[in-house]
Amino acid sequence: MEIIHLILGKANPERMNGVNKVVHEMATNQVENGYPVQVWGITRHPEHDYPERIFTTRLFPACQNPFRIDPFLRQAFLDYKGRIVVHIHGAFIPVFYTISGFLHKNNIPFIITPHSTYNRVMMKKNAIRKKLYFQFFEKPLLKRSFGIHLLGKSEWKGLGDIYHNKKSVILPYGFTRVEIKDTLPKATRFSVVYCGRLDTYSKGLDILVKGFALFSRLHPDAQLILIGDGKDKRRLQELCRELDLAASVIFRGSVFGKAKTRLLRECHVFAHPSRTDGIPASIVEAASLGLPCVVSDGTNMGERVARFDAGYTMKSLDKLELARGLAEMYDRIMIHGVGASLEANARGMIDVDFHWPEILAHFNTIYHKALLSTTINWKRITQLQPRRLF
Fold this sequence. Notes:
By secondary structure, this protein is α/β, with parallel strands linked by helices. 45% of the residues lie in helices and 16% in strands. Helix 3 (94-105) runs parallel beside helix 5 (127-144) and helix 8 packs across helix 13 (319-335). It is globular, with a radius of gyration of 22 Å. Mean pLDDT is 92; it is low at 378-386.
């Protein structure tokens, strides 16, 4: 059996596409753990201009008609028929609807990871259009799939509102934590950091800035560092000026690699009050570096953060609760001196709940059942009870 990850793009970790980064990380770890894997990308620029990787990548051109499949991709599926399981990444993508019909017709099993697209908040955006598209295209795709892989409870609830099924599975992606051997002093000012796309609504950045404004009244020397770029950068800068935070909020733009790691490690707390998300890779990365995290329930990380005492889980999605979380972290780190304990808890959370070998074993079980379903009763094997695997 071979696993084919199907994406839009090239699984390029150097780009800011979260799905591409996740697929790159997953495929890399699958190969390192002995699983045969390829990544197939559909892209308007099918040049192999990405960094070297240890898994095979095949690129197919995207057609002008968004529902049309490139003939070479059709043939590639047929060439591997009987020995592959396709793992589709993404939702509300027209070509995936067509591909699902082709795979189903040719008895090639597939599962789909919608990457948080089905949660309630995302479904409200362009609601009428999405409702129509879901009814005519997305629902048939899901019916054809062997399984639906969801990242957290917010998407579980959202999908349950619109498509009742017994084949959804909640399972996080893993993370490879890098051991930090050197010590790096924290910034002299209490530093709160956010890293990710500057999308005010979905990432809750208005809550972050307004909550930090309340917190800074108690601790005026504190600073908020925003790493990343996006369409709302100018609007957020204006909000900071309105709240008299121009000197306290630092927009660092996009930072990558070792420079980003160093900047994160200098900070005291990572904050991510998303209204809607899957499992933000930035939270996992920050926790792996020992940063306690202030998170909303919408990140699907709140239960973990609370269980491991790895930060603060917001009880409601508002600026006052964000300020309360920052204040608690300030007291524990700066006054009571338990920062080292919080750092150890954050790293422990990643080691336990995002352990790649165990997670990949769960995925491999799903893949094998999917392939087996092509030779026995499809309906019987897919009547899985909704469950959380990890």
